[in-house]
Structures
1.
Amino acid sequence: MKVIGFSGSPRRDANTDRLVAHVLAGAQAAGAETEFFRIADLDIKGCISCYYCKSHDTCSIKDAMQGLYREIHAADAAVIGSPVYMGQMSGQTKTFIDRLLPLLNADFTTRLKKRPALALAFTQGQPDTGMFKPYMENTHQMLGFLGFNPKEIIVAGGTREKTDVDKQSDLVARARTLGAGLLLR
């Protein structure tokens, strides 16, 4: 089993990276092979709405997404993490999500044969972890439409300093349990 993780935070080794890493650590402890990608470190351009992907199995833009498409197609599960900026995912994460359009055929059926299990991992300065729940649930549902098998959303609230996630032991334990649970599909 292979579980891949994506962090859409521009801050290296901060809360979002750490939360995704905890989910991946749980998957790895349960026997999965894992791989971690920092979206902000990759050359990923924005979608240009050319619809090349509707008649081809990939995107017309030749950048880091080409390799990520292969990783997603090969994965049994994925975790996508983002900090919450202005009530939504970060711009880096949004660019990545927009570029997932090639996962759909022209008739809106998925190209994902494995239908990888999916967890979303959000971090936010706002302590109320339910504050942006409708947005997060909508994102989870939309990724299900693309062909992922949505499982769970985990939210770390009150995360302002770079290592605040690690100070929330119950959250860390839950993230690791979530990672192991992704293998159960």
2.
Amino acid sequence: MWKTVSSKEVFNHPRLTLIEDEIILPNGHKTTYLKQKDDGSCCVTVIAKKDNKILIQREYSYPTNQKIFQFPGGGVPANEKPEEGANRELMEEMGYRANKLELLGSYLMDNRRSAQKMYFFFSSDLIMESLKKDVEEEIESFWFSEDEIAKMIKNGDIINIHSLASWSLYKS
């Protein structure tokens, strides 16, 4: 097992906190390790309509300077259950709440720098709510068939890692 000798916060921002740990590896070697502070989890939801079309959103991503296709979702604070976070994100991004959410799985977001999990839900039962839009988000919503989504993935139109991993879980 790795042993933590000391831990210190080296960077703090409202969206990211970095921690540097001094650790001893199983072979006895001492080193430092940089990780993100885990303040909750994340969620993503695949939503299907009665005509079997699936919601894909396109949102501007500042780091890549492009609009990215992805499934709705986002951060879930530590004091919020993943399914509550999924519904809050749906309300913020499209003004809907899922009447039923089925947890299809979870996966680690970046196991080299964090223990943070992404919870993956499926819903086919939406209820109109009031839109509680985040001021930083410019989101467009589209409905595609599974075949259209598969073509978008093959053509490199869907490149968001969480959408690709979630689609893999959905299809399995």
3.
Amino acid sequence: MTTQIPAALFADPAPAPRLERAAAALTAHGFTVEILDDAAAARARIKDLIPEGASVFTGASETLRLSGIDADINTSGRYQAIRPHVLAMDRATAADEIRRLIASPDVAVGSVHAVTETGSLVVASGSGSQLPGYAGGAARAIWIVGAQKVVPDLSTALRRVEDHCLPLESARAQVAYGQPSAINRLLILNAEPHPGRGTVLLLREAIGF
């Protein structure tokens, strides 16, 4: 049965029992899950999870930006940061190299738009650039997820993407790129078949969209 959640509540952090149900279901589906207090804890944990010198691609994410994780990865010099590297490349002449770099880093780091209590991760994208790495191209993937993104089931997750995330991301994209966003591509990760590859840092606080 689908659980109806008013769109206004998609910004509210899920209580502890729902976080624990989601974590248990994700773990049963092959993901590695850690429940952390807040974004500061995730920021510290990331440094333990990613070896120095690894090639790392960060997906465009308000969670990463607000937590400081994006800056830690892309400006610290600790890693081979892919995002600033490809942004400096000529997209007309180096498109194939850009595509390969983004699709197969050592580590892909980002967030998702919804986590279900039944153990699925849902990611929507306008360009799709982050999705190959998330889906399996990266050797490892790490997602930092605010507590407000936990929903009961997949149908509620899709409604969260459309009713809550898309308007917020469109407003951000309009300012950043001069045009609204769209749900052009949608990735649903129902399980992780390779043990240790996918890690979810599930926060007790709300952060991001």
